[in-house]
Write a structure and sequence with these properties.
The protein is α+β, with helices and mostly antiparallel strands. The chain folds into 3 domains: about 70 residues; about 230 residues, no CATH class; about 160 residues, Histidine kinase-like ATPase, C-terminal domain (Heat Shock Protein 90, 2-Layer Sandwich). About 45% of the residues lie in helices and about 20% in strands. The protein contains 12 helices and 18 strands. Strands 2-1-7-6-5-3-4 form a 7-stranded antiparallel beta sheet, with helices on both faces. Strands 13-15-16-18-17 form a 5-stranded mixed beta sheet. The chain has a 4-stranded antiparallel beta sheet with strand order 9-8-11-10, with helices on one face. It is rod-shaped and about 165 Å long. Bound molecules: adenosine-5'-diphosphate.
Length: about 600
């Protein structure tokens, strides 16, 4: 049994526990996985729309370059420069101011006196464009560098001005200034705080802006690139400048201050590209640098714009502008995670319960089988012993008689009586065993007929009496005067009574008093009781029902010395039940056992 328990623990219990532990862990992670999947999906959406916004700006940048080329149209650059502000604004609605500056810092356009906007522009930008002052800017250069050879001196000069201690970096991919090791970027906090960091490596990363400003002069920014943009905050207001160097005159830089209202209305369409299938779950907004929405995918949607689910910055061209994704029903995510968790949890619980119940069934069945196997082995040795004892007596006494060594007649009779009693015992035992095996195979047949139980009992007890009295027992009987009719098999009922009598004899201990009573009872239904009583030690407590199980012995042969097969009561109960009655045990108040055979009685008529 110990070995079986060990195998069970190692093969079933431990692996089940390990699996359950893994399952519970994975269920616990489900919410995280689900949120992660959602955030990755929406991060993709935000990134794509931010890329679209960037592409829109790049298109305007090229549009501006074309405007410049059209205005130049074969004229001398200096001639075009004088009228550039007016002409550009007339032809291109995105420009609020057009400016022209030479590489050496001479501002050719606009004229400060031309109009108030030009005046403000000159106040704000003349020193910066003339390289006489550096400013904190967000620079974005185009990819087409054409002037590497031409302005190498200027670059070297610019290089010398940059000291490692200064906190800036020029975001010009084609210039020699993109030296991240040498110049630290100014890291800034973002205007919005997304709930999810998307693919950020650490939890706090996403609170910082990926767009960095740099302290630089205009000349440093343009480097050797052919076009680009510069964004700058003046009195907390975003200014965006596009610039372009025509290949025909690379020493001249044409630029435009972009009209933010025009840009905003142009960018309206970006968030409208949101996939209609996603509109049930999310809204997307384009936020400006003050975290106010420029455009929203679902115009009726409103929320605390500073706390999107996820957001992506557009880049240096529009610093602190973001494409932000908001969940329309934030509870839905937790809800579906909870539902998933609950379903999986329930499934695991049911599986564990099934394993537990299955294991319990296996263990109980196994232990029952083991007990049965042990009882069968005991049975074989008990029966062999029971067969051997009467056989030995029969052989011994019959040999004595056969050899003619016993001359005394009384002794001879006594020996013959012993031989008869032992032979009866033998046949009783063999009957029991045969009947039991017939019952087990379902082959036992009873011949039920109307018979008088009182007569059967009287006859059976009468046959057994000499044997009991010869062994020093006193036998008392109480019979009714009238017959007690039952529907039964005579032999089978006699076998029940003999089994009970034989037990009363075997387990009588020192007090050899046996009583047999037969009584009619009216309650609860008319029935008859045959009671076999003894004054022995009784059935040990806790075994009152077990003694009716096959092979079960409360007094085993080894410790009590009383022979038995553990089948007598099993058979007695089986027979009684087939007759619609039962055999039960009751302890006697003054010590001893009382076994009762109950049977339904037939009416007299
Ligand atoms: P067995 O061959 O062992 O007597 P039984 O089925 O007749 O088998 O009885 C089962 C067990 O019930 C016995 O082993 C004994 O422990 C207990 N038993 C039966 N009759 C009595 C009795 N009259 N007094 C005490 N114990 C009894």
């Amino acid at each position: 049994m110990k070995k079986v328990a060990l195998v069970f623990v190692l093969a079933v219990f431990v692996p089940s526990l390990a699996l359950a532990w893994l399952a519970v862990r994975s269920v616990r992670d489900q919410q995280f996985v689900l949120e992660r999947q959602q955030s990755l999906l929406y991060q993709g959406v935000a990134d794509a729309l931010a890329k679209d916004a960037g592409a829109y700006l790049a298109d305007r940048q090229h549009e501006f370059a074309q405007q410049v080329e059209t205005l130049l149209g074969g004229h001398r650059s200096r001639d075009t420069a004088r009228i550039f502000d007016d002409e550009l604004r007339t032809n291109w609605s995105f420009a609020s101011v057009g400016f022209v500056v030479t590489l050496s810092g001479e501002i050719l356009s606009p004229s400060p006196t031309a109009r108030p906007e030009a005046m403000v522009f000159c106040v704000d930008y003349s020193k910066f464009l003339a390289n006489r002052e550096s400013a904190e800017v967000y620079a974005n250069a185009g990819n087409n560098s054409k002037y590497n050879g031409n302005n190498s001196i200027a670059l070297n000069q610019a290089d010398q001005k940059l000291a490692p201690s200064q906190s800036f970096q020029i975001q010009n991919q084609n210039s020699g200034y993109s030296d991240k090791d040498k110049y630290a970027q100014k890291q800034q906090m973002r205007n919005v705080v997304p709930q999810k960091g998307g693919d950020s490596s650490t939890d706090n990363d996403f609170q910082y802006s990926k767009v960095a400003s740099s302290e630089a002069e205009f000349r440093q920014i343009i480097g050797d690139a052919s076009e680009g943009s510069v964004a700058r905050f003046l009195e907390n207001k975003l200014n965006v400048l596009f610039w372009y160097r025509p290949p025909s005159d690379p020493k001249m830089i044409f630029g435009a201050q972009i009209s933010l209202p025009a840009l905003k209305s142009g960018l309206q369409e970006v968030v409208q590209k949101l996939d209609p299938a996603l509109r049930e779950d999310i809204a997307v907004a384009l936020l400006d640098d003050t975290a106010r929405p420029v455009s929203v995918s679902q115009p009726e949607f409103a929320t605390n714009w500073k706390h999107p689910f996820i957001s992506t910055e557009i880049g240096e061209a529009l610093p602190h502008w973001e494409v932000a994704v908001y969940l329309l029903n934030p509870a839905k995510l937790t809800q579906s995670a909870r539902t998933l968790k609950l379903t999986l949890g329930l499934l695991i619980a049911v599986l564990l319960l099934a394993i537990a119940v299955g294991s319990w069934l296996i263990v109980t069945d196994l232990s029952r089988q083991l007990t049965l196997a042990r009882q069968k082995t005991d049975f074989v040795s008990n029966v062999s012993h029971e067969l051997k004892t009467p056989l030995t007596s029969i052989r011994m006494f019959s040999e004595l008689l056969a050899e003619g060594r016993v001359k005394d007649e009384a002794k001879q009779r006594n020996y013959l009586n012993i031989i008869t009693a032992e032979a009866a015992r033998l046949s009783r035992l063999i009957n029991n065993v045969l009947d039991f095996s017939r019952l087990e195979r379902g082959e036992k047949k009873y011949h039920l007929e109307r018979c008088d139980l009182a007569a059967i009992a009287r006859e059976t007890v009468g046959t057994y009496r000499p044997h009991l009295e010869a062994n020093g027992f006193t036998l008392e009987t109480k019979w009714p005067d009238a017959p007690v009719l039952v529907n039964g098999d005579r032999d089978a009922l006699a076998q029940v009574i003999v089994n009970l009598l034989s037990n009363a004899e075997k387990y009588a201990s020192g007090r050899k008093e046996v009583t047999v009573e037969l009584e009619r009872r009216a309650e609860p239904l008319p029935h008859v009781e045959v009671r076999v009583l003894d004054r022995g030690p009784g059935v040990p407590s806790g075994c009152e029902e077990k003694i009716f199980e096959k092979f079960y012995r409360a007094h085993d042969s080894l410790s009590s010395g009383i022979q038995g097969s553990g089948l007598g009561l099993t058979l007695a109960r089986q027979i009684a039940r087939t007759h619609g009655g039962d055999v039960v045990y009751q302890p006697r108040p003054d010590g001893g056992s009382c076994f009762i055979l109950r049977l339904p009685v037939l009416s007299e008529s």
